[in-house]
Amino acid sequence: MLGSPQSAGVVLIVDDVPENLAMLHDALIGADYTVLIATGGELALERAGRLPPDLILLDALMPGIDGFETCRAFKSAAETQHIPVIFMTGLQETQHILRGFEVGGVDYVTKPIKPHEVLARIASHLKRARDMEQIQLALDAVGRAVITVNEDRVVSWQTPAAQTWLSPHIESDGCLLDAFQACLTLSEAQSLKVRTAKTNLIFRRLVGDARGITLLVSLQSTVPDPAVLQANFALTGREADVLYWIAYGKTNRDIADIIGMSPRTVDKHLEHIFAKLGVETRTAAASIALGR
């Protein structure tokens, strides 16, 4: 959503101390934000479910559902999992700061609250969220395959191309299969190749943020081993070898050099392959070998 044209953004403040609510409310209103208020975790979840804000300021320690469990609930709901959460915590509560990051917070401010610091943090994270939204729209438009996955392997966002390629590999609860677990630990300099029945899927990390890890996905077709081609299409061993390299785009002369036969013999094998597969072109034969 990221606010209306008349607003700098919509911020939900969650705190059980009236003085903190009043101070933050006045500071945010003064900076042209639309402000929602909740005095506890349950009310925060209800209000964010009805009107998802652009950012959440969340007190770490509250009666009932504390801030950590509230944040965990935000991150488990599809409509709120992408929203940046900034924790408010005491200056010396290091364990609370670490726990806030563990449950999905993107930042923290310490008490006593300094309004100018809060406004600066909010502006920074909203800008990053808007930038990410624009990037996602651009990726949708150009047809790149990109996904965002959280620490539980749940896909929170994907482009249409990624949805087409990955739908067989996503469980009913929205999680990528276990084979993709290593995606979550990729650095920006690394890639991961996952071999599936018909293709290799190559994953590269783009960025990590409150929504999870965003990955670029590319597709690399795989060719079955010659023994598999021989068994599936009633080919001779040599015919299977030729079809294998045809599927990899090799020319007849290349295949002759690789296998150790004359180009004329490759031509003969190719004629037999075409007849057995019921095709007339190298491209059609390669497509059948690739299982398309």
UniProtKB/TrEMBL annotation:
<dbReference type="InterPro" id="IPR011006">
    <property type="entry name" value="CheY-like_superfamily"/>
</dbReference>
<feature type="modified residue" description="4-aspartylphosphate">
    <location>
        <position position="59"/>
    </location>
</feature>
<keyword id="KW-0902">Two-component regulatory system</keyword>
<feature type="domain" description="Response regulatory">
    <location>
        <begin position="10"/>
        <end position="126"/>
    </location>
</feature>
<dbReference type="Pfam" id="PF00072">
    <property type="entry name" value="Response_reg"/>
</dbReference>
<dbReference type="GO" id="GO:0005829">
    <property type="term" value="C:cytosol"/>
</dbReference>
<dbReference type="Pfam" id="PF00196">
    <property type="entry name" value="GerE"/>
</dbReference>
<dbReference type="GO" id="GO:0006355">
    <property type="term" value="P:regulation of DNA-templated transcription"/>
</dbReference>
<keyword id="KW-0804">Transcription</keyword>
<keyword id="KW-0238">DNA-binding</keyword>
<dbReference type="GO" id="GO:0000976">
    <property type="term" value="F:transcription cis-regulatory region binding"/>
</dbReference>
<dbReference type="InterPro" id="IPR016032">
    <property type="entry name" value="Sig_transdc_resp-reg_C-effctor"/>
</dbReference>
<feature type="domain" description="HTH luxR-type">
    <location>
        <begin position="228"/>
        <end position="292"/>
    </location>
</feature>
<dbReference type="InterPro" id="IPR036388">
    <property type="entry name" value="WH-like_DNA-bd_sf"/>
</dbReference>
<dbReference type="InterPro" id="IPR039420">
    <property type="entry name" value="WalR-like"/>
</dbReference>
<protein>
    <submittedName>
        <fullName>DNA-binding response regulator</fullName>
    </submittedName>
</protein>
<dbReference type="InterPro" id="IPR001789">
    <property type="entry name" value="Sig_transdc_resp-reg_receiver"/>
</dbReference>
<dbReference type="InterPro" id="IPR000792">
    <property type="entry name" value="Tscrpt_reg_LuxR_C"/>
</dbReference>
<keyword id="KW-0597">Phosphoprotein</keyword>
<dbReference type="GO" id="GO:0000156">
    <property type="term" value="F:phosphorelay response regulator activity"/>
</dbReference>
<keyword id="KW-0805">Transcription regulation</keyword>
<dbReference type="GO" id="GO:0032993">
    <property type="term" value="C:protein-DNA complex"/>
</dbReference>
